Amino acid sequence: MSSAFLPDRGVVRITGEDARGFLDGLLTVDMDKVGVDRARFAALLTPQGKILCDFIVAEADGEQRGGGFLLDCPRALAGDLARRLAMYKLRAKVTIEDLSDTLGVVAFWDGERGGDGDGVVYADPRHPALGDRLALDRTRAESLGVGTAAEWREHRIRLGVPQGGQDFAYGDAFPHEADMDQLGGVDFDKGCYVGQEVVSRTQHRGTARTRIVPVRFDSGFAAEEGSEVMAGDKAAGRIGSTAPGGIGLALVRLDRIEDALAAGAPVTAGGLSLRLVKPDFARFDVPGAA
């Protein structure tokens, strides 16, 4: 079994009798589908439908960290996320706390379920191979991982799962662009939430031309992160996170890649040729996928 403490993850807790309904009116997830031992992937969007913050929503039972819901989110955004949620509080009976200084997150994959009864254990809902997460006392969490965050990052990249701040910019990407619709991060049959109209329109019209997809460099060495992807002589996207062996993720215009391949033009980044790879969770076509 592999495990790693994830120092870049934080935890926001929402408790109170109105907590479930409060979150349901704001997030992309149907909170009725969130339960103890049944975490969900979700996001808080801008009114224009762009991702402010994405996270895993886990419910803790009454004896685990005081119950309520834990949002496993980027630590750098945890404070801002708590403040933004508080803006919507109004008269809702909820308490919103940024616990990132006291709680840490450990990832477990490639083996049995992690944890020893302490903290809150929940499966990473984005992909089965991502395994489990454990939120518990941060000091203890730092001592639990036998692997490194870099190993976890490579595992995530090989599965084709994007991460905000590395593969897309918060406040600038739509859920479809970040593959949230493919990874169970958007419930299209739930009630209203912030940004729903734009996201639903994209889904119903099938107009998502920009996607994050895995890439493989023919040379075995990846271009620098942030390098521009070129489809022939047209800009088609940017390289996000990369890993050893010439693999990475890229946010690209699929239509421009398709046009270039049809014309026999090369697809490159940093002067290196690359191929797109279709991840096993994708339900969309990936031009020239290996």
From TrEMBL:
Residues 209-283 form the CAF17 C-terminal domain. InterPro entries: CAF17_C, TrmE/GcvT-like, YgfZ/GCV_T_CS, YgfZ/GcvT. Coiled coil: none annotated. GO terms for biological process: iron-sulfur cluster assembly. Keywords: Transit peptide. It comes from the Bacteria. PANTHER family: TRANSFERASE CAF17, MITOCHONDRIAL-RELATED (PTHR22602). This is Folate-binding protein.
